[in-house]
Request: fold
Amino acid sequence: MAYEVLARKWRPQQFADVVGQDHVTRTLANAIETDRVAHAYIFVGSRGTGKTTSARILAKALNCMEGPTPNPCDKCDACREIMAGNSLDVIEIDGASNNGVDQVRDLRDNARYAPARGPYKIYIIDEVHMLSTAAFNALLKTLEEPPPHIKFIFATTDVHKVLPTILSRCQRFDLRRISVQDIVDRLRRGCAEEGITISEDALLAIARGAEGGLRDAESALDQLISFRGKEIDEDDVLAVFGLVSRSVLENMTTAILKSDVPQIIHIVSAMDQAGKDLQRVVMELLESFRNLLVVLYAGQGAASLELPEAQLQFYQAQAPSTEAGRVLRIIDALIETDSRMRYALSKKTLLETGLIRCSRAAETATINELLKQVAELKKNFKSGATLAPTASAAAASLYGGDAEKKKPDEPAELNLLFMKWHAIIDLVGRADPLSRRYYLDTAPLRVDHDHLVVGFDPEFKADLERFDDDRSRLALARAVNRVLGRMLAVSFEPLKPDDRRALPADHKVKKEEGKPVEPTNELVKWYSNPVVKTVVEAFNGEIDDVRE
Ligand SMILES: [Zn+2]
Reply:
């Protein structure tokens, strides 16, 4: 017997069997039951969501010899002809094919003749938005004054391209993307019938890959069966579709939430080596954090997620340790990473830095958390604990009232920095391994009041510019603070040949002048504000942004 593809073999024959479109099928069944069938319908939805399937069931329901009935018998001649696709009364036209115009012209000429067998002549026009203008016009004539025995069922993936004159004459149904859980359930049931052994994770991976299209999921399963036979596990699915396993996605989600940068870099490089589609990884992470967000808002219920139990448990386990504001910031960073990666040649580097940025977004305290902690501080303060200096001292310091303070010994500080530079870089590297790589080619040049000038090898100018930003400077300033006990603004300047001693001996310094980069004084100013300093230290936090 010839192999029948699953999408065809499993095609639903009754409204009740259509997956994930209850809102459509129930309304249609009702309309038939109560004899309120419109003369034109349009089904809108992305590919593989059941538009043509629903159209054919509707045709059967109308023309079944036992009907019209919401439960066509599937046994009478009319039902069987429609199922076999050779009914004279049900005419399917593909708007995307070239003969669309001719078929629509035939339609116009033949519409006035009575149906051959059933009560209705039913035209199913797929991808109706693709019809040429000529075909549209021909169609419109019949649609405006339809004979009572004519029914139209249109389907489209792109409703915006359908002429308003047509839309206004149709009852419209929007078919949803099918949920992962619904697809998994359908595939599981089908596999059991076919005697195929398949793991839950494999089903889940297929459903993820199909992005809400059941037909795509079924074709994927077809492909897997011809590739693996009757036993399929997650690895097979991942190999065929270049997907990343659920456990890897969960590990990455956890690493981002925990700001575990070494782990992020490790996972990215493993995925890259395994030839995974990195752009797709970003989309899957987006989905993952979106799910987490829904769990955070919906709590234990989280019914709207329609996720399999194991996945839901993962998000529920993550939820208590995070907060919606953080997740939203991660999602923003992921969206940005996604758009940057689209046009990039080296997707790996962008993914790496993008995910590190995400982890930083996860790290920064939200306003809500800060407010909560400040309230706590206030309570401690009232109960006698002295955490912050008095307001007047703070104000004096903020507005420059500390003139008589002892001036720091700058040459001594520079020497100290020079001696401890590698330790400082390691300190930066602990928070951000990527920065460490770049700072290895730098050395402290001079301390000028509250300002540290760092020299870099001009040969690596391009690297430095790519990576230099407020955050990385701040990381450096904080590490310097650990050594000197005060925050300095950091700026960069290309090294001159004389400064060669600062760098490892094998560095060749070229005679090239780079433009020094502007210092970031804004955040440093705030760090030296005693009140802010106390708060930052009390929470072991960082200033992420200053807003007035
Ligand atoms: Zn029938």
Notes: The pocket of zinc ion is lined by residues 64-66, 72-73, 75-76, 78-79 (CB under 6 Å). The longest strand covers residues 150-156. The chain has four domains: 6-174, 180-241, 254-363, 383-539. The CA atoms of residues 225 and 255 lie 35 Å apart.
